[in-house]
Predict the structure.
Amino acid sequence: MKRFWIMFLVTSMVLWSAEVHRSQWKSGETFSEYLQRYGISQDLLKSISDDDSKYLSEIQGGEPFYEMLDGSTLIDALIPIGEEMQIELSRDLRSGRYRFDIVPIVYRKVEDEVLVRIEKNCYSDIDRLTRNPRLGFLLKRLYKGSVDFRKFRAGDKIAFVYSQKSRLGKPWGPPHIRGAVVEGRRGKPHFIFVDKEGNAWRDIRKTVQKTKTAKKRVEYSTTRTIRIRQRGSSRFVRPIPGARITSRFSYKRWHPILHRYRPHLGVDFGARRGTPIHATGSGQVIYAGWMRGYGKVIKIDHGHGYVSLYAHQSRLKVRRGSYVKRGEVIGYVGSTGRSTGPHLHFGLYRNGRAVNPLRVLGRSSEPLYVTRRITTHHTKLQSYTKVTKHTVPIKGAAAMKKRLEKLLEGSKPHAFRWETIAANLIHLEDRNVSAGEENLSH
């Protein structure tokens, strides 16, 4: 982002007044239409590489982004394509030409202690105090089953500690509540402690089980299991059974060819050229052909919003419009398009947005089975287990409890207050650089 900082210094010397606005991407608007809105030549699209152009479809309607404007002229724009990367569209002040690049999003992390005294309801009071509306709903989810948020009364207290990514004075991404306590005027305090995995605990200690194995002569039953193929299963399977994973899904990966950070919206499976590729699930082929940096590609619509993509193939076996079954061979591994060697780039999309395939895929392309059991009775030495329970401390929970108790003793509500949209505007006037300028470069 060093170049972006230098651009601001130059801008401040040549512009009498410029403003940075937080905008929302219009639903259904393409990047080409966005350029047309500001009178930017469509020739810019031709300068975008095949690898970068596919990320234009990752711009989501309704997502916030930032624009620097000199009147009606666009000077610079930062458009997120995920939580880690963003498109930078900048104007050269001398030539007037625009430059396209993809750069990492730089943000800082904020940790805050919040004390709320209920006046109206927990949601509006927390939003009014923090300008972070997600916090109230996150607290309700953590306390589900133990505290009814509808029964809060004026004067009740809520205290919690949370961390949040911050970008230009606004919350970026979801918050993470580390600990919380609610206290009614007549009831005992209810604590919640949250670990790094997001698990919520209501005490500083948790119960664990230990088992002891022994044997005794008893009458017992053995069960023989028969596997029966299950029809109609909708679970997805791996496109190349047993293949090693050479690159995982990531919003920020060092590209082996471009030598720059780029999102990798899929999983790469390493395999020899000519290895069969199987359909991850049943569906209709909606694309079969060449796709710029992806080379020879097949896309399959599986219904329910899911579409799978198979790239860099050497040969395609199915055509557009044909229907395939899960596990059916649809093509063969190759290295077409922009590729360093034979492999399959596999992408999975839900409602048009890339998802991590490894969270959905099964481990093989074998059909799923249901089991039928046949029981036989015997007398034999048989193992049994004795279960004992004991409690162990939750790491960091005791210190968090003391921190929350001290916070609860406060008499006045307080919290870090996120900036309003109006406070987030930056003015560059009288040849001086605004203090908020450095924040925008992040």
Notes: The CA atoms of residues 308 and 348 lie 5 Å apart. Helices lie at 2-14, 31-37, 43-46, 50-53, 122-130, 134-142, 397-408, 437-441. The chain is about 15% helix and 45% strand. Residues 2-14 form the longest helix (13 residues).
